[in-house]
Design brief:
Layout lengths: L1 E4 L6 E4 L7 E4 L2 H6 L3 E4 L4 E5 L4 E4 L7 E5 L5 E7 L12 E6 L13 E4 L1 H4 L1
Parallel strand pairs: 3-10
Antiparallel strand pairs: 1-2, 2-5, 4-9, 6-7, 7-8, 8-9
Length: about 120
């Protein structure tokens, strides 16, 4: 099990699973500005354990992706999105949760292997 939270602790989560062997950095305009590293999970493995009124959502362009962040401290926490394939395609059904691995408890995301996806040109 993995646990984590935003900076102020008002949004916390747990993941029934392990940290992926490789994290993902996306180069799209939104991800590049946020600077987070993605760890992907099926929705059934991800659980919010604390949020109060602090879980806020940002959607843009197609509105298909819900980017969650803490309204109190501003940390990007997770995104609920279509399970896009590396070429940008999607089966129109399967979803995935992208968790900000920088928020995992007792984990240094800067030491993990990272794959870069060209979101700047895919989306």
């Amino acid at each position: 099990m993995i646990s984590g939270s935003c900076h102020c602790g008002q949004v916390a989560f747990r993941i029934d699973g392990e940290i992926p062997a490789q994290l993902t950095r996306c180069t799209c305009s939104f991800c590049a500005k946020r600077g987070l590293l993605h760890a992907y999970y099926p929705p059934e493995q991800f659980h919010i354990t604390e949020s109060g009124d602090s879980d806020a959502i940002y959607r843009w362009q197609t509105k298909l992706v819900a980017h969650h962040f803490c309204a109190a401290c501003g940390c990007g926490t997770f995104s609920d999105s279509p399970a896009f394939k590396p070429d940008g395609s999607w089966d129109k059904t399967t979803r995935r949760i992208s968790v900000n691995a920088r928020l995992f408890d007792n984990f240094d995301a800067d030491l993990a292997p990272v794959e870069v996806i060209d979101g700047k040109n895919l989306w």
